[in-house]
């Protein structure tokens, strides 16, 4: 068995943080500890939203309905971006935007609210991701989950209260060969944020915002982890980031890992795990 170790050190500016990463690659075949369950495909919905968007709660409701159906096989990111996410006069003075939100929305060509991207499905005609209205999400999710997984992701988290450092390790196990280079992006979300939201014409002052994308350990589109992917390969990537308890409730933070195709940006596999169980 051959082992290749590469170290990466990166600096990002989300939440005024310092982030470091390191990765190992173990080439297959490997033993029982690396066994891959081929039917554990999971799917990602990115819901582009904003607190003054009157129709966006309809998408939030649909996302939660689907989450109740599919459970942990569905991962949701609420991406607050654009005009409807801008801070305004009270009660909409909170600013939930971050640089990752802007990069994703601009790259994918999002222009309407509410709308979403399911697994970042690639449109070869527009050469961008397929933007879907919330009523189209379920059909797309069903189709993706009907196929066996190409990879498994396993997340291990640790939070150090003494220095407010989030530590996460993502283990990627490939079930199949893959022709394009693959990348890994590791985000963090915050759940159950209480803040105002337009619900139609009504100001809902104590609205519960779910699955809010708050930042990334390694940028909006992460990093390439392999350009030569063979079934049985295992990659281990570790990151840490300091987060301010004044700007985020660490008890409601989740780590979200996205394995994706570098060429098309389409999601290969996604995983989510709470920072503090």
Biggest sheet statistics = 5 strands, antiparallel
Helix content: 10-25%
Rounded mean pLDDT is 88
Annotated CATH homologous superfamily of the domain at 38-151 and 185-228 and 247-274:
Glutaredoxin
User: Helix and strand succession?
Assistant: EEEHEHEEEHEEEEEEEEEE
> CATH topology of the domain at 38-151 and 185-228 and 247-274, anyone?
Glutaredoxin
Weakly predicted, low-confidence segments: 1-18, 26-38
Strands in their spatial order, largest beta sheet: 1-2-15-9-8
Query: How far do the termini sit from each other?
Result: 34 Å
- Which CATH first-tier class of the domain at 38-151 and 185-228 and 247-274 would you pick? Alpha Beta
Question: In terms of structural class, how would the helical and strand content be classed?
Answer: mainly beta
Strand content: 35-45%
> Which descriptor suits the 3D outline?
globular
CATH architecture of the domain at 38-151 and 185-228 and 247-274: 3-Layer(aba) Sandwich
- Care to count the β-strands? 17
Cα radius of gyration in angstroms: 18 Å
The number of distinct helices, counting runs of at least 4 residues, comes to 3
